[in-house]
Specification:
- There is one protein chain.
- The chain has 20 helices and 7 strands.
- By secondary structure, it is of the alpha/beta class.
- The strands form 2 sheets. It has a 5-stranded mixed β-sheet, with helices on both faces.
């Protein structure tokens, strides 16, 4: 039986970002009762990165550092480790100790290190790290939970979002070589979402997370969506159908963009005899402006596909950016960001507000002449190809030369925009290649 691909780290990372209080309540209820959630909490991603300058211990995708406040008013940092694959006990326990010690050494903050053991080895249960030499002893004990200890009735009875995450995780492990079993398990979990009293947004988020974790072959993925659509029609709760509506809206937007390109091409043909040296210089400026505009549109397109809507202030901020390198960085951030809020924070870090406003005031609005229009079209097409390849490299690391050559030969803007959307949502490079027109 073919082994089924699964992504554990990224769904756990997203779930922690979305539902951190629920995470503490579900896995560490005694700690939960000692935290003042009314004061909020803060993810310290930058601080966590600062304590892991090397790779010998290995920062995992699902590791999180969070600032909370205890009921007595004291600030405390919580370091969460999600361990998917069991390692030699000393290695994992050592990593817990090293991170805890580095945080205290650098920031002088009290740190509670918590571990979730999500592996499939029942006997692997590290709880401390220690060593002793010449009468000197170092010891770190850390609370752990083991996902294998959670029973099905407990998970099915809980309304905590992490009951769903754990259920999806365990089912994924159990169906490693059983695609039909994984399909049935994922469908059963999806149906249960409607019976737990979740909000519309929570249902959408949890469906996204279990889909991300519980990968299915293409034919079973199609069957799953059809069955879920039928279920929603029966319950008169069109949550998933909203994806279909967004797809239609995106298709309409792509058609409108194609009409704009065709109009530009006609204008270029009518003005073909008016090219001069000045027009050639303006063409270069127009091409650069087209690349910038295409870069902005690509960032916004990724955000809309991932988060459904983009706040107007954020859209305006993106449309004011005139630095291509900043837009390229934001394009990658749009793919990786866990939420609109996190993406906004990364914009603020890359480009302060006053600088964005200054650049907006100085932005160049080209006077389109013949070569400017042609250059703009060329810039739009080239940027479209580059965006697709960038998404594929971020998601799948290596892009075959043959696929890259095929993409670089595409000269239709509508096709490129459609492929960009596919590159963001597709399950594998093989599936993506099948979407390219012959």
């Amino acid at each position: 039986m073919t082994e089924q691909h699964a992504d554990y780290d990224n769904p756990w990372k997203d779930a922690l970002s979305l539902y951190f209080p629920a995470f503490i309540e579900f896995f560490f209820p005694k700690i939960d009762t000692n935290i003042d959630w009314n004061r909020g909490y803060e993810f310290l991603d930058k601080e966590l990165q600062q304590i892991t300058p090397d790779a010998e211990i290995g920062l995992r995708e699902a590791d999180k550092l969070v600032k909370v406040w205890r009921l007595d008013g004291e600030e405390t940092w919580v370091l969460v480790h999600i361990e998917i694959q069991s390692q030699v006990q000393t290695v994992f326990a050592e990593r817990m100790y090293v991170y805890n010690n580095r945080i205290f050494d650098r920031y002088r903050r009290q740190v509670a290190s918590l571990a979730v053991l999500a592996d499939d080895q029942p006997s692997w249960r590290p709880t401390q790290y220690s060593y002793e030499i010449w009468g000197c002893q170092v010891l770190l004990k850390f609370p752990t939970v083991k996902l294998l200890d959670y029973q099905l009735p407990t998970l099915e009875a809980s309304t905590n979002p992490f009951a769903i995450i754990v259920l999806a995780h365990l089912t994924t492990q159990q169906t490693n070589k059983d695609p039909q079993g994984r399909y049935q398990g994922r469908l059963r979990i999806a149906k249960s979402l409607y019976q737990r009293g979740y909000s519309r947004q929570d249902i959408l988020e949890l469906l996204r997370l279990i889909e991300w974790m519980m990968r299915l072959p293409k034919n079973l993925e199609r069957d799953f969506k059809q069955e879920l659509t039928r279920l929603e029609e029966e319950n008169q709760m069109p949550y998933i159908l909203s994806y279909e509506r967004r797809a239609l809206e995106a298709e309409a937007a792509l058609k409108a963009a194609q009409q704009e390109v065709q109009a530009a091409q006609q204008a270029a043909q009518q003005a073909a005899q008016q090219a001069t040296q000045q027009a050639a210089q303006q063409a270069q400026q127009a091409r650069q402006e087209a690349i910038l505009q295409k870069s902005r549109e690509a960032v916004l397109e990724v955000l809309r596909i991932r988060f459904e809507s983009v706040p107007n202030p954020l859209e305006e901020a993106i449309n004011q950016i005139e630095d291509e390198s900043v837009l390229k960085t934001l394009f990658g951030q749009a793919i990786a960001a866990r939420s609109i809020g996190e993406f906004q924070e990364r914009i603020d870090a890359l480009l302060p507000k006053d600088e964005r406003e200054e650049e907006h005031q100085e932005s160049y609005v080209p006077n389109l002449e013949t070569r400017e229009i042609l250059a703009r079209l060329d810039g739009i097409l080239q940027k479209g190809r580059e965006d697709i390849l960038e998404v594929l490299r971020v998601r799948f690391e290596n892009v075959p030369n043959s696929l890259e050559e095929t993409i670089n030969q595409i000269d239709e803007d509508l096709v490129l925009k459609t492929l960009l959307r596919q590159a963001i949502t597709i399950g594998s490079l093989e599936e993506f290649q099948q979407q390219i027109p012959g």
